[in-house]
Design brief:
Elements: E1 3-10, E2 13-20, E3 29-32, H1 43-49, E4 53-56, H2 77-90, E5 95-100, H3 102-111, E6 118-124, H4 142-149, H5 151-157, E7 162-163, H6 166-173, H7 184-194, E8 195-198, E9 201-204, H8 208-216, H9 222-226, E10 233-240, H10 246-256, E11 261-268, H11 271-274, H12 276-293
Parallel strand pairs: 3-4, 3-5, 5-6, 6-10, 10-11
Antiparallel strand pairs: 1-2, 2-4, 7-9, 8-9
């Protein structure tokens, strides 16, 4: 096993973290996963970096033991607060924050609250929706509307949660849907980091209804946070089934500037998992750029 799982105390429970690289060395990178995924899903990427990196299981995901509180949050502040708290309590010096999808957005939101602790951000296809979506969760019936009308939220709410075994889950997911172009090794990492044993087999650690609620909780202002990003930061967007639109990307481009913005038109939302070498190269570049900027 080339990783170490550890649990860290937060104010209301424990967050699970998977360490990669030489853990005796100073921590260089904190990585945050996509909605419904978990820290171990990015094993192939983070192991290849060769530096001390840690991936967190966000609240309600993986092996973290943190209460959900409101099961219908209106924004992602609970995740942002957890990440900020983890970094203040359990890390030293400056780190690079990175993530994918939900995790990419949280890395941007958290960095805005950690100016003295974040040397850079590398965000892979951060959820970047039109500003009017920030209002919906606060309108009467707004959360229900998003759950019913937003395809990814609707599908998440219907997701099967229970399986007879890890092997049965593997057979169910292999080369299908999200995992169509993802390697067997990465699928196995996802399942090993995101299944919990039950009396009848295994179940998803992330309750499908919690995953759905996260999709609906769009009351976040990523644009305001992005304006505070460290200079050594890059937001990387993908064009196929991406978590942004041409309009929102254009707005983000104006806010952060061309030198901190990338758009890969022919890459899909799950490009980092489908092509881990791309993510490794981007993270290595981010680590070097952040080190030079210190």
């Amino acid at each position: 096993m080339n990783y170490q799982r550890r649990a860290y105390d937060l104010a209301d429970g424990q967050i699970s973290a998977v360490h990669f690289g030489r853990t005796a060395n100073p921590l260089k990178l904190v990585f945050l996963h996509a909605n419904g995924f978990n820290a171990l899903s990015y094993h192939v990427i983070l192991h290849e970096l060769g530096v001390h990196a840690v991936a967190l299981d966000l609240r309600g995901h993986g092996m973290s033991a943190l209460p959900l509180g409101s099961k219908n949050p209106r924004n992602w502040s609970v995740f942002t607060h957890d990440v900020v708290q983890f970094i203040h309590r359990h890390t030293k010096g400056k780190i690079v924050l990175s993530g994918h999808s939900l995790g990419a957005a949280i890395s941007v939101l958290a960095a805005a609250e950690l100016p003295e602790r974040t040397s850079g951000v590398c965000a892979f296809d951060a959820v970047t929706l039109p500003p009017f979506m920030q209002i919906f969760p606060y309108l009467p019936g707004g959360l229900t509307f998003i759950k019913n009308r937003f395809p990814m939220a609707r599908r998440a709410g219907k997701r099967r949660a229970q399986f007879d075994s890890l092997e049965a889950a593997f057979a169910r997911y292999r080369r299908r849907g999200t995992f169509k172009n993802i390697s067997d090794a990465t699928l196995l990492d996802y399942l090993q980091g995101g299944l919990i044993a039950t009396e009848n087999g295994v179940k998803l650690a992330c309750d499908p209804l919690w995953e759905q609620a996260i999709y609906a909780a769009q009351g976040n202002n990523i644009y305001r946070a992005a304006a505070k990003l460290p200079a050594a930061s890059t937001l990387i967007y993908f064009g196929i089934n991406g978590a942004s639109t041409s309009t929102t990307r254009a707005k983000m481009h104006r806010i952060i500037g061309a030198n901190r913005y990338e758009f890969h038109k022919n890459a899909a939302h799950f490009h980092p998992l489908e092509h881990p070498g791309f993510a490794v190269d981007a993270l290595n570049k981010a680590l070097k750029t952040a080190a030079l900027a210190r």
